[in-house]
Amino acid sequence: MPHATKILAVDDREENLTALAAVLDSLPVDVVTVTSGRDALRELLREEFALILLDVVMPDMDGFETAGHIKSRARTRDVPIIFLTAAGSAGDQAFRGYEAGAVDYLTKPFDPWLLRAKVSVFLELHRRDLQVRRQAAVLREAISDGVGEAASDRVLKSLHDGVTLIEDDLAELRAHAAGAAALDRIEGHVAELRATLDTLAEGG
Questions:
Q1: Contact in structure between 103 and 180 (CB atoms under 8 Å)
Q2: Which residues carry this modification: 4-aspartylphosphate (predicted)?
Q3: Which of 11, 17, 24, 177 has its CB surrounded by the most CB atoms within 10 Å?
């Protein structure tokens, strides 16, 4: 699938990774699987991921330590993490997971429907984030090129409509109360873009 949105799944057991990939097969996503925290960090240097599904209990480097490294890097600190925890220790691991920067957690054996639902929300957030970045790039290019007045009006109108749609969709996602940190980040980008558009529309 060319240019597919990517999810990174991290688990030291191959059978768990196979199960995750099978459950997510119906979603428009490319599931990249690795069996250790170190391999996960290497993949994150090479590719951009919409979400990380991270097992807590792994040899050598566990999920908490891996998450700490992910959150300490500027390139990866904003990638949302869902921890995969064992049923018997879900409470303690969930608390530590949130402290480590996780946005959510799932208990093994996980419910396929719940997993797909949670992943779908973060895929949508990632798509909106990309839209905001593209809109911002178009705006910067238009300002840099000093486009003519008529062209400038068309660019501003197109950007204004695009930002309005994104704002409406983000409000709908916010109503589901999922991925609060990711939503806050995207809404901040949208607010900055909206302020710039309003300033330009007013002629200054």
A1: yes
A2: 55
A3: 11
